[in-house]
Amino acid sequence: RKERTLAMIKPDAVTQIGDIIQMIYSKNLIVTKAKMTKLSWKQAADFYSEHQSKSFFNNLVQFVTSGPMVAMEVMGDEALSTWRKILGPTDSALALKDTPNSLRARFGTDGTKNAAHGSDSLASAARELEFFFPSATGSGPPSTA
Ligand code: CMP
């Protein structure tokens, strides 16, 4: 089944974008949109609002606002599960033990600084893609702002 997902490279792994894009294409997925941006605290808190009651929420928002990130729309057969398999476990320290070739093992550090994010469901993917790549409204040409 052909799907779209959000793949987000976090500030700790932005310099590894070349290797990360290679990992995506090597699994027969393609990058159909990409944007580098530094989120404000409010934007990051909104993006991660489902975690707002968690103990790690402030650390998470602090981390993802610490520098630019790269958001990508990744497309292909089973894109959600394929990208999450590329990522490996959420905790990079665990990933290093269990799946040493995974992206989070290679480029992350621990449970918060974990190099990249992937949508966990089709509904999350739709919301997260809309967050970074809002649908055009109106009939004019694309904004250059
Ligand atoms: P991500 O896939 O972006 O989804 C939520 C993020 O919260 C996760 O990656 C980590 O960066 C962070 N996170 C999840 N669980 C924990 C935890 N137990 N402790 C600290 N940070 C966490």
Automatic annotation (TrEMBL):
Annotated binding of ATP, by residue: K10, F56, R84, T90, R104, N114
Entry annotation: catalytic residues: H117 (pros-phosphohistidine intermediate)
Signal peptide: none
Location(s) in or outside the cell: Cytoplasm, Cytoskeleton, Cilium axoneme
Recorded superkingdom: Eukaryota
Family: Belongs to the NDK family.
Protein name: Nucleoside diphosphate kinase homolog 7
Organism: Synaphobranchus kaupii (Kaup's arrowtooth eel)
